[in-house]
From TrEMBL:
Tree of life domain: Bacteria
Alphabetized SUPFAM superfamilies for the sequence: Bacterial luciferase-like
Any single Gene Ontology cellular-component annotation: cytosol
Keywords attached to this entry: Monooxygenase, Oxidoreductase
Protein name: Alkane 1-monooxygenase
Domain (Luciferase-like) ranges: 9-256
Organism of derivation: Intrasporangium oryzae NRRL B-24470
GO molecular function: monooxygenase activity; oxidoreductase activity, acting on paired donors, with incorporation or reduction of molecular oxygen
Claim: tRNA-binding is one of the keywords in the record: no
Amino acid sequence: MKKIGFLSFGHWTPSPHSQTRSAADALLQSIDLAVAAEELGADGAYFRVHHFARQLASPFPLLAAIGARTSRIEIGTGVIDMRYENPLYMAEDAGAADLIAGGRLQLGISRGSPEQVVDGFRYFGYEPADGDHAALARDHTATFLDVIEGRGFAEPNPRPMFPNPPGLLGIEPHSPGLRDRIWWGAGSRATAEWTATQGLNLMSSTLLTEDTGVPFHQLQAEQIQRFRDAWKAAGHEREARVSVSRSIFPIVSDLDRQLFLRETASRDQVGHLDGGLARFGRSYAGEPDALVASLAEDEAIAAADTLLLTVPNQLGVDYNAHVIESVLTHVAPGLGWR
């Protein structure tokens, strides 16, 4: 059994070929797709966060709205770039959204991915010491993780406007249990091991920022195993969670065939990212029986407890709900995921 959700990048473009032509379309359709996914029996609705782009950028209003419209589905991000975040303000937003959702937030955070602008976080007021982008993200993360625990750290005003509880004050609203539902988007094996030492769940995408010559799914499976080994060595009491993302398109209609037949020949790719080699995973498209056979050989999916289906959101809510339903009904049972 696996948790199966979707991951949307929330693209929008004012093109007659897009079903998502404005920021309002992207946001409102994201809510509608989450509602549809819950009705179909999916387990998660996750959203990518990009700044300075025609994509979803400010996740917490969206997550709160979905939380108010749904009752069961997990709601998350994949991922929030922590270089841009004020960790205390983010803790307030996250706590509020999680309380609205009844404790269903699953927040993926990380150093982020290549940006639309040069060093965009500087426009948000953040300057990394010695130009170390990763350290900036991890410093913000450490503060965020600390304050969402709910402890008091701020000295109260001796003459406050409203009465204070005794002792130091912490971030409000506080949502108990949120700390255990934070994930780190890791792009390498070493980062996955660091993720485990921090007590964060592992979120692994369709690319890795390294290449050892083995197929993507095997390299990702090694990453997951190293994470689990490091988690065990760290002595954490709870069980870790691991998600992987995949583009999976069952061909069960003429429209599916028209849109994704060419993806049946998809293969791994190796390219350059941020000055180094990166390995990109393939897409999966085909008749359901063929998909079941191909996916059964994906070692990383087998090692993960959560699968996020990357959806082409500009094709509209109805078509993306169809893709999710096709995976749940035509593919998942054959692999023992349902």
